[in-house]
Amino acid sequence: MSREKKKDAKAAEAATSQSDSENTESADAVELHENAGANVVEIDDSKSAPEDRATAGPFDVSEVPAMRPYVDLGGIKVAPREGLQLRLEVDERANRVAAVSLDYEDSLLQVQAFSAPKSSGLWGEVRAELIQQMTAQGAEVSEEEGLLGPEVVVNTPVPADQGGGTRLARFLAVDGPRWMLRGVIMGKAATDVATRELVIDLFRELVVVRGDQPMPPSELIPLRVPAGVQTDAPGEAQEA
């Protein structure tokens, strides 16, 4: 082979090698782009609430008669009923009431209210974060369609020194006008359908008092100790 032909062959080989390299890099780029897209989770920011929320609850304070008796906890009002006991969960570090726990029908319903945008909901975003967080902690997590919409069912391992086994909890929420009311159901109602219906009925009787003050989305709506309740034993259950 002449010197000129050898140079041409080497040039062609180099060009082919460069072309293969560029094709490989292009394929890698496409693959990376596709993989990156696979990790993107679309969050549903529409309001999650039953169609009859405004008439069957959970209620906004503007939707209930002012004279109806409630236990006033600030951001949440609880309708009294026989057999119901409530307990205030206090965050001692922040020195504030963080949640309301309602003991009813051998079950526990813990509730919190959060500020939300006027036109969109929070439960879709909160649900996605909850699933990611609880899965990372080693819990068994699934989504189910409940009586009020999507629920997150969490089965958490219980340490051996606490009896072992697992503990089941159901997370549910309803998006209202400028608020989201979230509940966690534990105990008998977490597994028994008939009891869960009673606890859901209790959840739907709750009233959220958002207030008119500006609040960023997802901020806990302040709760307070009701008048006449002793604050020296904040964890003690009170008859509602």
TrEMBL record:
<feature type="compositionally biased region" description="Polar residues">
    <location>
        <begin position="16"/>
        <end position="26"/>
    </location>
</feature>
<feature type="compositionally biased region" description="Basic and acidic residues">
    <location>
        <begin position="1"/>
        <end position="11"/>
    </location>
</feature>
<dbReference type="InterPro" id="IPR022183">
    <property type="entry name" value="DUF3710"/>
</dbReference>
<feature type="compositionally biased region" description="Basic and acidic residues">
    <location>
        <begin position="44"/>
        <end position="54"/>
    </location>
</feature>
<feature type="region of interest" description="Disordered">
    <location>
        <begin position="1"/>
        <end position="58"/>
    </location>
</feature>
<dbReference type="Pfam" id="PF12502">
    <property type="entry name" value="DUF3710"/>
</dbReference>
<protein>
    <submittedName>
        <fullName>DUF3710 domain-containing protein</fullName>
    </submittedName>
</protein>
